[in-house]
Amino acid sequence: MADDLSAPLGLGPAKRQWWRRLPFGLVGGGVLGLVGVVLGVWLAFVRDPGGGEPTAVVKIDRSKTGVPRNDVGVAEAAKPANGDGADIGMAPGLSEAKPSGGLEAVPKRVPEAVEGQPLSTAPIQRVSEKSRWGVLPKVAPDGSRPFDVYARPVPRRPQATPRVVLIVGGLGISQTTTQEALRVLPPDVTLAFAPYGSSLDRWMQKARNDGHEILLQLPMEPFDYPDNDPGPQTLLAAGTPEANTEKLMTLLGRLTNYVGVINYMGAKFTADDRALGPVVKEIAGRGLMYVDDGSSSRSTGETVAKGVRAPFAHGDVVIDAVATDEQIRAKLAQLEQVARSRGMAIGTASALPITLRAVESWAKALEARGLALVPVSAVAKAE
Fold it and tell me: How far apart are CA 124 and CA 259, in angstroms?
């Protein structure tokens, strides 16, 4: 039987009611006891030069995560790195964030990162704003967007070179799975983080230091909800625009330095343009791209994104819908065929151990087969 490490939250099939299993009392009591001991030792022996500085604490209900206590990290506040960030919580001139309502004019994409230079690992002030939900992305006064600022640069290649995008999701919850994915996946693989982990800042910084472009996964309602439950803050087709926007803001505030968002599940939600429309409009208004994972043929994502001028990408092949080595390798070969015939193809996958092993060996020889692995921002459709 699969466990939380072999079947993490990702782009593949989800466990039913996976986040209701842990005994809250036992886990919570143990964690509180451990925190008390560590705090006592800290206060007794360590002088904290940063004492009194603002901190952010996110409550994670371990009774709903389905993650073993030993596999849940400690939430950490993002710190400026490489000279490109700012302490958003202390930055002057940042006001309470409000839903953006979309952009009136969207500039053409101008990538800002320089090839060979480290990617940012802290929120960049001009495309960030403080809010009651956390630090949210925004469009800068000069028109630059998080989509531009946080994108991974792509080396110049002959125009005829077929381009392949691979998005691996379900990261940030299981420390074991996330660490393994970062160890084996090449930098041009785009990583999608679930919004439920307690150490998302730490994993984001590691991913960006390794050169990965990242997305944030948004849980969306499937047709068999709530039997098949994507998790807390799921966007619902019957929800009001105000209710879904409130959930969206909560989710967007869980991470920083991402170029866009991608649906997690959501066949029912993405099929309803009246539900999806306000969400994608808000995403576009904050300078992000919207990625449809390609798992539902009824999705209205491309039409909605075009209507609000959001950068958009659509998955062509789900790599591990059938999680066997033979099927995964067959889907990777199919992804290459699509890229050769169309010039570009996007594959989506979950961070399953069997998938990571297959992708690791597949990616090593991709360039020798005449294809280029690129991040998802490099193939976004024109706004």
Answer: 13
